[in-house]
Amino acid sequence: MKLKDLLKGIEYSIIKGSNDININKIQYDSRMVEKDDVFICIQGFKVDGHRYAQKAADCGAAVIVCENEVDINGNCTIVKVSDSRKALALASSNYFDEPSKKLKMIGITGTNGKTTSTYMMKAILEQAGFKVGLVGTIANYIGDKKIPSHRTTPESLELNELFNEMVNSGVTHCVMEVSSHSLSLDRVYGIDFNEGIFTNLTQDHLDFHKTFENYYNAKLKLFKASETSIINIDDEYGKRAFEDISGKKLTYGLDNDTEVTAKNINIHSKGIEFELHHKGKDVQINLNIPGKYNVYNALGSAAACLEEGVTLEQVKAGLESVFVPGRCEIVSNNYNLGFEIIVDYAHSPDSLENILKTAREFTKGRLICVFGCGGDRDKTKRPIMGNAAASLSDIAVVTSDNPRSEEPIRIIEDILEGIKTDNYVVVENRREAIKEAIKLAKKDDVIVIAGKGHEDYQELKDSVIHFDEREIIADIIKELF
Asked: pTM surpassing 0.70?
């Protein structure tokens, strides 16, 4: 591929060399560079790629793309751009022949509900006969092929490579979680979305965004690139987004006059029953995931798919077949314990509150919550989550989550600052905390193990260990019963 074709649509200047040369691949990690590659210098939070420009040249890079000056020994072509992250996104798209333009793109953003909604949309669209790709937190999918996911939204180079695989595999629609990080860091820059969905906005990621206003504005970027914006206007920030977003808009919700809504909602321990209404028609939905917030997820997902021409009957079939790992997942069905055990990914104040309120609705006995907070993340949410767990549960078991570089007990101390009652115990080791909750449980109790959900690992200071809560629960039950 010619360098000038790779740089199509990017404003740049040639500092040295020529744009009429053949290039091999694109890299932004100097350790991956091979002969005739293009190395794009990304200025990160911990590492500045400009510092590795010479290393990339030594490894055989034919081109260095930079936004700051670099002094290179060798015959590299040097290209100056104003924003190397945006350049990476556009160059990656060009390299793979603009794959996102060959797909129907549906993006979803918000603090909570993204993962569940992508699974719902994939199921609905597949019921309508489409081959669907998915990009998200749990895994990426090309049809039925599962690909490990390392972050909610991949870097733009990997993202376009994934889109290209989808196109080559006959995928017609791609549903993807669009994180606030990816929007701020221009990982999805240059992608045009057919539909963009706004779920909600509550406190999270302030370690990265610093202010709530920055967080909100990051989310809005998705809708500037969306042909149709689908907005939950029961959410306070959804109402604001509706005013701030231009272009075609659709609304969903339960408490306001919206295009897509639900009525006659019945929530129970195994799921939800409700009537989905759209354009004067309705269909009865029996969702196998409990929680009022999952009604919202279903409505937003249905709205996007209806925009893509699916029928209400196909929406029903898709929603009733969906399963989402680690999202209000009842893992005690195979055991005759007399009490329920639920695993959920809730790791923000709002999501923890949602799962506990949901569980409370079908808890006949006591509600026991096992939870912790992640290390190296927003510390301000820790006492808030402590307060939520203690006030909404009968017993809170405070433990470790993914402590990363922090000491688990320091994180727990931050959590305890928000607890004003005495209905909690501290068990630092997460496996032992789960065991303690199971030992405490009696007939008709419900245990909610929050924070890790689908994850099968735990991130410690110096290692990542295998940690699948389903396996751990099974082992503990064998021990105790």
From this structure: yes
